[in-house]
């Protein structure tokens, strides 16, 4: 019950003979070692398995692996820059103290990336709505909202100036 | 892994009909947000079947507005697309607002309006507004195309009139069913995202120049086995002035047509109380953008 | 040279980079060759006995390696609670369960298991096992389980599994003196931890022929002991490793799946077996926060002075003892910690029932007690018409109060500062006045508050041992080994700051490890209570002081300077008086490795046994909007004020506070696991269990009344659990302020609030709505 899928994973063209019964989550973890994709609920409620597909964040636990054929997928492993440096969103999550147990964080960062790609300066309310498909039990979400705001400010300036923008809480 | 016996990708309607013929027990899947969750839960008739994926069929995508003003909403339009489509926002604001409340962002990007209808959940967020727009469901089989009013499409929880070999292709809304109307949808749930309605209500209203109700359509979700229009309240409302007493009476009339039940989420008593409250609020919101003080 | 302050700095948590890169490996992320997968067969009744299993079909299913019945594995009864072992047998946790059982005490009880090549195959085969039950009556409530004719859920053991009573004075006398007596019945729901990572464990026989278990546990050392006990193995024959862990909140302070995982691997001749719970299993069949009912009776004088407090507690344990009466009984020692009254009586019992087993959860009984106490206290203030903050100011214990139950003087007990600061920072007086003015025909507004007092560690009731181990590395950095468990709260980072501060080196010079290993990390009982930075802090401080002494001794010898002249500042050994450089720590340590004559690696160990406790305190203030037509409550703002001594890392501290505030706000408003009449959980999934989303919470405000605790190792005291105590009652009290009804249960769902409001409107008299 296998089918060949060809797709782009974090910028690289890949293919896989995948069991058609597998979710994208399972294929990414088991066949490609993308263990940054986490399973928290298996039913598309918690968002820990979020993956960006063709510019849209979706829950990979309720996405059949075969559906990825011909598409582009970005996991958290593809957010880190080629040279190993952090994306400004990742750095902002650290600086704002948004990371605790870390299990929801890959999904949170991918949802943030999608949000900021479409809305470079979101309000706190817009952040809360766009990230409402990602659940977290550790943080009460406050510092995650802070982190996305910080990332928005940093992405608004040239790369060399980003580090100079410190974390200050604004509401 | 999902408990399936196989998967086929349909790239066209022709493919769909061929695949359905080859395996009459196979189930269609669009965005998967309902079907896959039910397979995982081993819901009756879901596990151990073959799936036919239709998400790549171009003919079922997008939205067109015919010259006469008829809307054709492709069955594969996602909630996210419907929410943000400028034509729909302009003319079918109630639908756009209603689907903006589905689940979370990820599910709104995958879930489709056609899938939402075919899943036939009594609490589906797209249904009440489509009922108030008198939407027609276009159903195609290999040899036939037919249209049925959405109110006749639902048979019971999870059950529709779809016959083997049939697929929902589009949802049509006629100009007379939206022109001059404004509406609002309330999803009564315990969370502001990622939730299912404990009760929901869409109201679509047209007001005359004399500030009387020219037409009112109300539909409740989760107030019966299928979404329910409120014929008695709607009949009462015609030509009534807009005031608090009328809105309250509309709410009371709705109890004649709802079929609420008690379950662990809410009691019937509480749901019935909400039935009397939500239509008036929706009307106020639709007309004035305020649920509370604007009218009365 | 200025001594760089590391304590009190918002140092970046060392594991954050790995976590934002998706590089952090949790238990399920490690590649393991030839891994077998197990699934548990769950009972479909809540009380009964399995008469017969038919496994013939299941055995034939593809991929099935073995169907495992209770008789196939050891049946030594054991206890799962993450408490230290007790040398006194009668003080041990109740050993009332087996890894698999025919005696069904909860819906979903572990009645068999399947080992298969894949998880999918195991799952599919489960449905093929046929089970015949004898069905017994189901008891969902303590009242039902305590009925005279109720069957014993554990044969030979009364359904009341624990009782306690503490107090002083004569409460009846106190009530006789009182001008008013306020009685309240208050109840709390079953809350679940909802850590994002479900329980998961992998076990196999390692190459040293011992039993290895990789697990998402808060308590590796205790986990090792309980695996060994359940499997009848010498403790040394089990090794537990804990990698990154996706939250625990107390649920992983119970050893739930690890003993069975090891037992299954043993059945398989030591082949690796993984047991991973689904979300549905994790919510329903692991542990919960106890649902506790409280009957409060409080006597008060017109001037606001309380004369007597009587509190009777009934705690619903569920089917297995787990942490048992420790949770329900805990509250007894914290009423007096907060409030003065010459007469106090606290009686409590914990009762077996057939709902899901309750265990430890962040706050360990205190969120329940503080909710009930602070509702009752607030209602007393309402009764005598006193401002609720003023009432608490009038009645709280003073700084320096000797708590005879906790055998501790509450030193630097700053509740008064919290109340004063809270009133000011929250803008209480203005918000209170405005609340009434804002009212519309359907929306009402209100403010409310609640206070708490809280012990940091478990002394004098339990063992408080922690260990630390430091190794100086050749480049002048230090590897810190601790038995304390990082579970996302940031303990590793806070403890590293402590080590750096004491050593006189930079924060970056401390190297931690993502893995806790019972073979190599010093003994510590684990992540629970609010003990890690407190008890763990003493251990780290002791190890770091010893290391500093060794470094200075080595420098003193090498450079022929009296040691008392030397200090370490900013990675340099310097003259203490003027900061002149003697040698860098790097050069000093390098020589300790390679100097032909004097090389001797520098390592220090410390194990501490702490016999003191510090009392933290604080309060919450909330502002709500209540839609009286629908009962919907919107939390407009929420502030926590904390007296937690010295804040080690303000970024981590505020993160702990925000997360706990969210957990408590949702406890008050929306969360609760519910059961059918047959004991079947009805909402064990993330759609129906209402964990708040980002849209359901406001921004969370927090204020620290920062002092230096005279006992805490770095002036610090409890913070991990304390913020989860008072938000829920503050919200309830705000709803009371808004609608004038004293609701006696949480969560305040729309239906509860609507019913209470309308019942009160109908009965005119008002009073407490018992809905």
TrEMBL record, chain B:
UniProt keyword annotations, A-Z: Flavoprotein, Oxidoreductase
InterPro entries, per the entry: CO_DH_flav_C, CO_DH_flav_C_dom_sf, Diverse_Substr_Oxidored, FAD-bd_PCMH, FAD-bd_PCMH-like_sf, FAD-bd_PCMH_sub1, FAD-bd_PCMH_sub2, Mopterin_DH_FAD-bd
Annotated ranges, domain FAD-binding PCMH-type: 1-178
Highest taxon of source: Bacteria
Stretches assigned to coiled coil: none
A GO term for molecular function: FAD binding
GO cellular component, one term: xanthine dehydrogenase complex
Gene3D superfamilies referenced in this protein's UniProt entry, alphabetically: 3.30.465.10, CO dehydrogenase flavoprotein, C-terminal domain, Uridine Diphospho-n-acetylenolpyruvylglucosamine Reductase, domain 2
Protein name, UniProt field: Xanthine dehydrogenase subunit XdhB
UniProtKB/TrEMBL annotation, chain C:
GO cellular component, one term: xanthine dehydrogenase complex
Domain of life: Bacteria
Domain Aldehyde oxidase/xanthine dehydrogenase a/b hammerhead: 21-137
Listed Pfam families: Ald_Xan_dh_C, MoCoBD_1, MoCoBD_2
InterPro entries: Ald_Oxase/Xan_DH_a/b, Ald_Oxase/Xan_DH_a/b_sf, Ald_Oxase/xanthine_DH-like, AldOxase/xan_DH_MoCoBD1, AldOxase/xan_DH_MoCoBD2, AldOxase/xan_DH_Mopterin-bd_sf, XdhA_XDHase
Keyword terms of this UniProt record: Molybdenum, Oxidoreductase
GO molecular function, one term: xanthine dehydrogenase activity
SUPFAM superfamilies: CO dehydrogenase molybdoprotein N-domain-like (SSF54665), Molybdenum cofactor-binding domain (SSF56003)
Name listed for the protein in its UniProt record: Xanthine dehydrogenase subunit XdhA
Lineage, opening ranks: Bacteria, Bacillati, Bacillota, Bacilli, Lactobacillales
